[in-house]
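Need residues for this backbone.
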């Protein structure tokens, strides 16, 4: 998969996309991540990419010319791509959306800054606006890096084990169970005995129950969306009884 990120501060993103798993995937040719400086395409002699908003108001708005010209130069004649604008008013990124995006061959990401970008840019070249949450950041660079990381993990070959993301938090429909590593005891705190037993059936059952328990406590909305076996339904009812007792 190919990502092209358009930004006035591309160096903010580079470290996050060239290390660890993503860096290795790029070196293997599984991913291609290109950063493009919007300032390189401005016709303003001072290399400005923003101006004051019509109608008044605080802050600056990124102008049409440099972003649209940068997009044209990057995209060329390629039509098989999706252009995304990272925006607080966009569709909130979740795992379902990430899986949809992972089916694309190429994604071009526009990073806004200041008070955002001229609406005519969105109207003419943007296919989808995406937000990483209901809060406001100073620019789209960090959200763009998060989007690339989230989507890239779903590309075959990026992760060492192609199935390892399926049991992870959220993608399985539940929050992930607690994880432990060596030593088996540290500062008086012990790893649960079941994880040391070598009995994989019991381990899997324990992990499933812990996932349900954590999701029940933290994200009950996910519990309501998921289907469970009869045994798991009984376990959830037991969690409700425990909570009811604590409240009383």
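Answer:
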């Amino acid at each position: 998969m190919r990502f092209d990120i358009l930004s006035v501060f591309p160096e903010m993103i580079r470290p996050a996309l060239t290390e660890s798993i993503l860096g290795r995937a790029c070196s293997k040719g599984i991913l291609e991540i290109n950063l493009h400086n919007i300032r390189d395409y401005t016709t303003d002699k001072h290399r400005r990419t923003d101006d004051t908003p019509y109608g008044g108001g605080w802050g600056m708005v990124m102008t049409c010319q440099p972003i649209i010209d940068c997009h044209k130069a990057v995209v060329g004649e390629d039509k098989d791509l999706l252009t995304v604008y990272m925006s607080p008013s966009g569709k909130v990124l979740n795992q379902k959306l990430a899986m949809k995006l992972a089916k694309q061959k190429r994604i071009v990401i526009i990073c806004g800054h200041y008070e955002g970008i001229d609406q005519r840019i969105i109207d003419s070249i943007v296919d989808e606006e995406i937000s990483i949450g209901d809060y406001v950041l100073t620019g789209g660079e960090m959200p763009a890096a998060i989007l690339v990381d989230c989507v890239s993990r779903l590309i075959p070959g990026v992760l060492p084990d192609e199935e390892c993301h399926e049991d992870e938090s959220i993608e399985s429909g539940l929050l992930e169970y607690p994880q432990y590593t060596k030593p088996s005891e540290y500062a008086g705190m012990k790893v649960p005995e079941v994880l040391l037993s070598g009995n994989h059936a019991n381990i899997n059952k324990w992990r499933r129950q812990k996932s349900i328990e954590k999701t029940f406590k933290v994200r009950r909305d996910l519990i309501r969306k998921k289907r469970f076996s009869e045994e798991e339904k009984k376990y959830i009812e037991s969690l409700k009884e425990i909570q009811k007792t604590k409240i009383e």
